[in-house]
Amino acid sequence: MKKHILFVALFVVANFVTAQSSDDYIELAREILKAEKKAAIAGELDLTDAEITPFWELYNEFNNKLSQVQNKRVALIKEFAQNYESLSGEHADEIMKGYFSYQQELLKLKKSYYGRFKKILPREKAVRYFQLENKIQAIVDAELAAQIPLIETE
Fold it and tell me: Tell me: the pLDDT tens digits for 109-135?
């Protein structure tokens, strides 16, 4: 899995130069990550023949909803970036509240789908799947943390 995700990170950085705008870059990064993530999960879950179809159907449904929730995070990051140099304390506070709202929505989605994954997979595989999701997200989060500057203070 680590090799897949490292490849994604290198590929995305290399393709940043060719992206037309930040939106193009975000879409390019998402598409690459989506494909690599699916390959990594397929290689790590060891699904039985009976589990394959229901898992991938639910996986696709979950990841479509996950993308919708993550759009809120992307919007917050873009708002921060666009206003970074003139960001007031009040505006920064609003962005932070938006981030908390995003986190709550993300947790609600994960809890809901964890219950659904447990209905089609043994609990150990459902937990393993969410561990994989969390590890992949941690890699993405680390990259974002390295790229997003801290807010300036007086």
Answer: 999 999 999 999 999 999 999 999 999
Distance CA 102, CA 108 (A): 10
Domain ranges of the chain: 2-147
CB 19 within 8 A of CB 28: yes
Confidence of residue 18 (pLDDT cuts 50, 70, 90): very low
Q: 143 versus 120: which is more confidently predicted? A: 120
Block residue for tokens 């690459």: 32
Helices assigned H by DSSP within the chain: 2-16, 22-45, 49-83, 89-120, 123-147
Q: In Å, how far from its chain's centre is CA 125?
A: 20
Could you tell me if 55 and 120 are in contact, meaning their C-beta atoms sit under 8 angstroms apart? yes
Measure the CA dihedral 58/59/63/69, to 10°. 50
Name, in order, each residue with C-beta under 8 angstroms of 45's C-beta and a sequence gap of 6 or more: 55, 125, 128, 129, 132
Q: Is the pLDDT reported for residue 15 higher than 50?
A: no
The pair of structure tokens assigned to 112 is 């809901």
In angstroms, the CA 90 to CA 41 distance is: 41
Query: CA-to-CA distance for 133 and 136, rounded, in angstroms?
Result: 5
